[in-house]
Amino acid sequence: MFNKVILIGNLTRDVELRYLPSGQALAKCGIATNRRFKDSSGMQKDETMFIDFTVWGRSAEIANQYLRKGSKVLIEGRLTLEQWTDQNGQKRSKHSITVENLKMLDRRSDSEQGHQGGTGYDQAAPTYNQPQSTYAQPAAQQQYQAPVQQQTPAQQPVQELPTIDIDEDDIPF
């Protein structure tokens, strides 16, 4: 069996950080996620889910430092069932998320709106750039360059690389 949950949404309240007697950091918060769909009559509907989550360790401290009510986040973790007895002796339970990965999705300017003095979070949302491959260049622009070895002028052998004449029609890709 596999228990994995990935949610994107906005925090419903500020992060509540506390430390256990062992010194381990524990943060609790909630996330609101939206789903837009058409009902059977074709009307556009919005459904909002409110889910509590728990973050442990250094991630809990970072969440407390940089996140505020309304911050946009992606959380990845596992669904857990919390059970307790309330003040009236009634057994209660709820599902929540135990977070394994948390990503801040707000840009700095977004996170500072409504938080006077800034949050100290000065990094934009993650951007992933793939390295450019030589295969992405047109064949006419590709050139072979021999590796350069550091040698003194007296040690450098005189060597010329042969020129290979390849017709573009011979290249299989």
Automatic annotation (TrEMBL):
Alphabetical keyword list: DNA damage, DNA recombination, DNA repair, DNA replication, DNA-binding
UniProt keyword DNA-binding present: yes
Nucleus is among the record's keywords: no
InterPro entries associated with the record: NA-bd_OB-fold (IPR012340), Primosome_PriB/ssb (IPR000424), ssDNA-bd (IPR011344)
Annotated region (Disordered), positions in chain: 105-173
Positions occupied by motif Important for interaction with partner proteins: 168-173
Listed GO CC annotations: nucleoid
GO molecular function terms noted in the UniProt entry: single-stranded DNA binding
Gene Ontology terms describing biological process: DNA recombination; DNA repair; DNA replication
Protein name (Swiss-Prot/TrEMBL): Single-stranded DNA-binding protein
Native source organism of the sequence: Hydrogenimonas thermophila
